[in-house]
Amino acid sequence: MLPHRSEFPTDFLFGAATSAYQIEGHAQGGAGRTHWDDFAATPGNVAGAEDGAIACDHLNRMDEDLDLLKDAGFDAYRFSTSWARVLPEGRGTPNAEGLDFYDRLVDGLLERGIKPAATLYHWELPSALSDLGGWRNRDIGDWFADYTEVIMSRIGDRIWSAAPINEPWCVSWLSHFEGIHAPGLRDIRATARAMHHVLLCHGRATEVMRGLGMSNLGAVCNMEYAGPAADTDAARKAARVQDAIYNRFFISGIMKGSYPDEVVEGLGDYLPDGWQDDFKTISQPIDWIGLNYYTRRLHDAAPESAPWPATVGVDGPLPKTAMGWEIYPEGLSHFLTMMQQEYTGDLPIYVTENGLAGNDELTGDPLSDPDRIAYLAAHLKQVKQAAADGIPVKGYFAWSLMDNYEWAEGYAPRFGLIHVDWASLNRYPKASFSAIREALKS
Ligand code: GBH
Questions:
Q1: Can you give the pLDDT at residue 361?
Q2: Complex-level ipTM
Q3: 52-64 pLDDT, tens per residue?
Q4: What does the entry list as the binding residues for substrate (predicted)?
Q5: How far, in Å, CA of 131 to CA of 65, rounded?
Q6: C-alpha torsion sign, points 162, 297, 124, 343
Q7: Helix/strand/coil for 320
Q8: Which of 53, 121, 274, 354 is most buried (CB neighbours < 10 A)?
Q9: How far is the CA of 44 from the centre of ligand 1 (A)?
C-alpha cells in the first residue's frame, strides 16, 4: 500500500518522470545524431548494442501517454527536451518539427491540468558537438545557452518549472571517468573539465531563462549514500571521498560557490583555467533543488598504486533491485536532511526521481510488480516523515512513467509504472500504476 496523498502537506505534488532519448525514438522526426547513438554503435558499450532509435515511440504516441499520466492522477510531469531534436547539429538551424513536438507536449499537459516540469539536458549530446570535444570544451557554455534560448523562446512561457541539467555527476564522472555512459572516456582531465563545464552550463542556461522571464528554475542532482565497506579508517576515508565527489561537489558549487577542498586537491591541475571566476555564474540564486535518489553503495580503499580517488565499490548485504542496486530508503531521509542543513536551508526540495527496475517479467505476469510498490511505499514513507519534520520537501516524481531505454543496460531493465511491450510498443499499466492511482485519488 502506498501512503495516500492526504497524508502529505496539502500543496505536495506528485509526478512521474521520463527523458527524451529514453522514450521518444531518436531516428524519427528530424532529430540529429547524438553521442548515445555513437556510443551504442561501438560494440561492448551497451547491452545488445541497443540504442534509442525507436525506444517507446513516444514521439508518435504522446497523446496516449499523456492520457495515462492524467488517468493516474499525477499533478506534474517531468520530461526533457532533446538538444539534438531541437538543433540537429547542436547549433544553427532548428528542426521545426522538433519544436512543434515540444509545443504540443506542453499544451497537451496543460489541457489535462498537469504541470510541465522541463529538463534541458538528459544526456543526448548532439554528435556534432561531441566531435568538437563535448563537455570537455568550454565553448559548450555558449552552445548550451543558445540551445536554451531556442527551445525556451518557444515553450518557456508555459513551463511550470525548469532545470538545465539532469544529474551533473552522471554527465561528468560516470561518462568521463568510469566510461560507463557516452562518451565512454576514462580520463581524469576530461572528467574535471566536464564536472566544471556542466555547472557552467547550469548557470548560463539559468541566466538565459531568467532573461526570458521564466521562474521556478532549479537544479537536479543525483545522490547515492556512500557507506564504508568495513569498520576501518581506510574504508571510512574511501566513503568520505566518494561522498565529496558524488554528493557534495555539484550542490556545493551551485549553493555555496565553492567546491569541497578534498575534491579540488584530488583533481589537481585538471580543472580548467580560471574555474574560480565562473562561480558568479554557477551559484546565482535558484528557486528549488531536485534530488534523484535510488540506492547506496559501500566503498573501500583501492590498492596503494591506484590513482586518486583510489576507492573501490564493494557489494553490500542489503536486498537488491534487478539492477543489483541495494534498497536503502533511509538514504533518502539522510540526503533530504543533509541538503537542507548544509546547503539549501529554506529552498524547496523536490525528489525528482526515485524508482526501481523490478523483476517484472520474471514473475510470470509482467503487470504484477509488488517489489516496485514496496519500494515506492518505503521511500514515500521517508519523504512523508521528512516533510513532517519540517524539511521543505514539496514533491515527489516516480521514475519512470513507462519502461524505457535504460542506457548502457539497453531495454532489459524495466523501471516503468506502465509496461511497454517491445514488439508491439503497446502500453499496459502495471499494478504499481493502479496503486498510485488509488493513492492520488482525492
Ligand atoms: C537515473 O540515474 C537517470 O536520470 C535515468 O535516466 C535512469 O533511467 C534512472 O536513473 C535509472 O537508472 O551499481 O550500485 O554502484 C540514476 C543514477 C547512477 C544510480 C549509478 C545508480 C549505480 C549504483 N545512477 N548508480 S551501483
A1: 65
A2: 0.95
A3: 999 999 999 999 9
A4: 22, 122, 166, 294, 399, 406-407
A5: 34
A6: positive
A7: strand
A8: 121
A9: 19
Q: For residue 358, what pLDDT is reported?
A: 86
CA-based nearest residue to 202, from 250, 234, 238, 274: 250
Q: Are residues 80 and 98 in contact, defined by beta-carbon separation less than 8 angstroms?
A: no
Q: What is the 3-state secondary structure (H, E, C) of 207-271?
A: HHHHHCCCCCEEEEEEEEEEEECCCCHHHHHHHHHHHHHHHHHHHHHHHHCCCCHHHHHHHHHHC
The atom of ligand 1 lying closest to the CA of 406 is 8
Compute the distance between CA of residue 325 and CA of residue 436 in angstroms, rounded to an integer: 23
**Residue type at position 18:** T
Q: Which residues of 130-164 are buried (b: 16+ CB within 10 A; e: fewer)?
A: beeebbbbbebbebbbebbbbbbebbbeebbbbbb
Rounded distance between C-alpha atoms, residue 50 and residue 55, angstroms: 9
Residue 62 sits in a domain whose CATH number is 3.20.20.80
Condensed to tens digits (0 to 9), the pLDDT of residues 253-278 reads 999 999 999 999 999 999 999 999 99
Name all residues whose Cβ lies below 6 A of ligand 1: 19, 22, 166-167, 170, 222, 224, 292, 294-295, 297, 313, 324-325, 353, 399, 406, 415
pLDDT in tens, 69-127: 999 999 999 999 999 999 999 999 999 999 999 999 999 999 999 999 999 999 999 99
Range of the domain at 206: 5-440
Pocket residue to mutate for ligand 1, from 294, 372, 411, most atoms within 8 A of Cβ: 294
Ligand 1 atom having least distance to the Cα of 399: 9
What span, in angstroms and rounded, lies between the C-alpha atoms of 272 and 57?
A: 40
**Annotated binding residue 354:** no
Closest CA to ligand 1's atom 7: 406
d(Cα 21, Cα 370) in Å, to the nearest integer?
A: 28
What is the DSSP secondary structure assignment for residue 87, as one 8-state letter? Answer: S
- For 357, how many CA atoms within 13 A lie in the half-sphere containing its CB? 18
pLDDT of 442 above 90 = no
CA 65–ligand 1 middle distance (angstroms): 23
Cβ atoms of 124 and 35 within 8 Å: the answer is yes
Domain tally for the chain?
A: 1
Ligand 1 centroid – CA 107 distance (Å): 30
CA 377 – CA 207 distance, rounded (Å): 38
User: Does the predicted model carry a pTM greater than 0.95?
Assistant: yes
C-alpha cell, 6: 492526504
Q: Which atom of ligand 1 is nearest to the CA of 296?
A: 14
